[in-house]
Write a structure and sequence with these properties.
The complex is a heterodimer of chains A (426) and B (172).
Chain A lengths: L4 H10 L9 E4 L6 E4 H14 L10 E4 L15 H14 L19 H5 L7 E4 L13 E4 L4 H7 L2 E4 L3 E7 L8 H12 L8 E5 L1 H5 L2 H10 L7 E3 L4 H8 L19 E6 L6 E3 L7 E3 L10 E4 L7 H11 L9 E4 L4 H9 L2 H7 L3 E2 L19 E4 L15 E4 L2 H10 L10
Parallel strand pairs in A: 2-3, 4-5, 7-8, 7-10, 8-9, 13-14, 13-16, 14-15, 16-17
Antiparallel strand pairs in A: 1-6, 11-12
Helix pairs in contact in A: 2-3, 6-8, 10-12, 10-13
Chain B lengths: L3 E8 L6 H5 L2 H5 L20 H4 L5 E4 L11 H8 L4 E4 L4 H9 L4 E3 L3 H4 L5 E5 L4 E4 L4 E4 L5 H9 L2 H10 L4
Parallel strand pairs in B: 1-2, 2-3, 3-4
Antiparallel strand pairs in B: 1-5, 5-6, 6-7
Helix pairs in contact in B: 7-8
Classes of the chains: A alpha/beta (426), B alpha/beta (172).
Chain lengths: 426, 172
């Protein structure tokens, strides 16, 4: 009987000939790193101290990066984020982490942009991280699984337990309209299957739309997969993925693919050409509506960034919409490139200049507004964002309202000062 | 930690988000929980009096997709601190499931639990035997116990005390 890509990657990681949904496995990482964010690292170091632990499973496999806060002076437990970085760095060095494994601002970005750019999340491999959105790596055929609270123990053990999920296949046929993005496809699916539609299962995205989609679009869909209750999201890798990694890694990797007779818990087929831009309406992360139903809702703030967006394609489409225009005078539009690399590339393309000329604020690569780090929302503000979630208080004051949409929808809305359909600008 | 509990039932609904319903995100981000006591914030967005009403050993019975949203472990820690002995759900979000075991919060996944239990019922739970006795209705429900090694992690108090045990036994 055939196996899904998720089952094959998990079997390979656990060194087993094959695994099935419901199996419990223990495995770690091979030929790659466990990337530890500096802010979480400082908490980990305290946990290590409390427990009296004095070593990592393999210090050479630990990578340290300030990949959440950017330049924002977060004060968590009375420690600023630069101080967190110093604590994490000294702790890591004292436990034998090589100097070259410690990155700093200027060479980093949002947590899940990094492994894709640095070649740490490779097709057929496993990518583990303490943050919720590590399924992002599924966009390049890599299985991303969140360690969450288990990160300190993982650093000591070098393995963690996992349950093999069932997979659900999402077959998106046809061709997306211009201005409809990977993000809209995911939100559309969420609207169809609901927030518990894929509980503890893997979402596998396939079909013509996904084949035609850029890596940026696929990464965005996989990043958001958790909002259906899913364990992870993944796309079978193709030539686009291999081309991307050609200059980014010397590690030999073995891509995995779902067998044609793999077993799925369910298969859903949607016609991509009929998908409209989608909006998540506050206060719940689960209320998904087509943009037409909320068009005209006044906004005060707009945001493109976080692990759910902020990639080249996202900034490019915003620049396409805003070129030669000014955003609405009542709107503050924060655009945060996902990484230093994206910032450099989009700068060379003239995208950053276009956005600045339109009146956007460009912030240092980081999570930025998504958890209310940079420019947190003031009382009663209304925001449209292409970041991860809109739970009250997530991006600032609890009375602020957050609508979620694609980067194209966010840019079009910033232009009009109210929620707008981006298709008319493309 | 024992694997048997007895307590009074509190019922909550489906799709409880760790940051929206279980532990309010903004208050945590503002540093109001710096004392590490998440227990006094548990479920306050739904019922502000809940942390005061809940008694040690009480049991939470919830619907589908328990603990959805981000994988923030404060939800699991808070529920445990509030005195809840066990969470029984129709289904769990993956992050919540994993964090519960790794932080030593007993959980049971049982489809149909809400049909058989109501708020205020007294339950007796045996995690190893896979049995829930509703003392109030005298009904017994069966569930598939977690595999032994997960029960071992859970009863050690979570993955960190479990790791400590492996270190003490010279296994790592």
């Amino acid at each position: 009987m055939g196996k899904t890509i998720v089952e094959k990657i998990m079997a390979k990681a656990a060194g087993k000939p094959e695994v099935s949904p419901g199996d419990y496995l223990k495995f770690g990482i091979k030929d790659t790193y466990i990337q530890v964010g500096s802010d979480i690292g400082a908490l980990n170091s305290r946990e290590y101290e409390r427990l009296g632990w004095d070593k990592f499973f393999d210090p050479k496999k630990v990578m340290i990066a300030p990949e959440h806060c950017g330049t924002w002076a977060r004060q968590q437990d009375n420690v600023t984020n630069r101080e967190s970085h110093r604590i994490t760095k000294e702790w890591a060095l004292s436990l034998g982490v090589p100097k070259e494994n410690i990155l700093d601002l200027g060479n980093v970005g949002t947590c899940h942009h990094l492994p894709i750019e640095k070649g740490w999340a490779l097709p057929g491999n496993v990518y583990l991280h303490a943050d919720t959105h590590c399924p992002t790596a599924g966009g390049v055929g890599c299985l991303g699984i969140n360690l969450s609270a288990a990160e300190p123990a993982f650093l000591r053990l070098g393995w963690m337990w996992f349950r093999v999920p069932k997979s659900i296949k999402f077959n998106i046929t046809g061709k997306l309209q211009d201005g409809v993005m990977g993000r809209d496809v995911f939100e559309y699916i969420l609207g169809q299957i609901g927030p518990a539609g894929a509980v503890y299962q893997a979402m596998e995205f396939t079909g013509q739309v996904v084949e035609d989609m850029s890596l940026d679009g696929r990464l965005s869909m996989c990043c958001l997969s958790i909002f259906t209750g899913a364990k992870t999201g993944i796309v079978n890798p193709d030539q686009k993925v291999f081309d991307w990694f050609k200059t980014r890694t010397k590690v030999h990797y073995e891509p995995q693919y779902s067998d044609p007779d793999a077993v799925y818990a369910k298969t859903y087929t949607y016609d991509g050409s009929k998908i409209e831009p989608q909006i998540v309406v506050p206060p719940y992360r689960r209320t998904v509506q087509p943009v037409s139903s909320v068009e005209g809702t006044k906004i005060t703030t707009a945001f493109i960034g976080s692990c759910a967006s902020g990639r080249d394609e996202d900034l490019r489409i915003a620049a396409r919409i805003l070129k030669g225009k000014k955003i609405h005078p009542d709107v503050m539009f924060n655009v945060t490139p996902g990484s230093a690399e994206t910032m450099l590339r989009t700068d060379k393309e003239g995208i950053i200049s276009t956005l600045l000329e339109a009146g956007c604020l460009i912030c240092a690569p980081s999570c930025s507004m998504c958890p209310g780090f940079y420019t947190p929302l003031a009382k009663n503000e209304v925001c449209i964002a292409s970041s991860t979630t809109n739970v009250p208080g997530r991006m600032g004051e609890e009375s602020a309202q957050v609508y979620l949409g694609s980067p194209a929808t966010v840019a079009a809305s910033a232009l009009e000062g109210k929620i707008a359909d981006p298709r008319k600008y493309l | 930690m024992a694997l048997k509990f007895k307590g009074k039932v509190w019922v909550f609904g489906d799709n409880l988000d760790v940051d929206k319903e279980i532990i309010p995100f903004r208050e945590r981000e503002m540093g109001l929980m710096k004392d590490g006591n998440f227990g006094k914030w548990v479920m306050t967005p739904v019922d502000p009096e809940f942390p005061k009403k809940v008694k040690k050993g009480d049991i939470m019975v919830v619907g589908t997709n328990m603990g959805c949203g981000h994988g923030h472990q404060h939800a699991n820690i808070g529920i445990k601190q509030a005195g809840i002995s066990c969470v029984i759900a129709e289904s769990f979000d993956r992050n919540f499931f994993k964090n519960s075991i790794n932080l030593g919060l007993p959980i049971i996944e049982l489809e149909g639990i809400n049909k058989n239990v109501k708020a205020g019922d007294i339950l007796e739970v045996d995690l190893e035997a896979g049995e829930i006795k509703n003392v109030t209705t005298k009904k017994t429900l069966k569930f598939t116990p977690l595999p032994d090694f997960l029960l071992e992690i859970m009863s050690a108090g979570g993955i960190e005390p479990y790791t400590d045990k492996l270190i003490a036994e010279g296994k790592i």
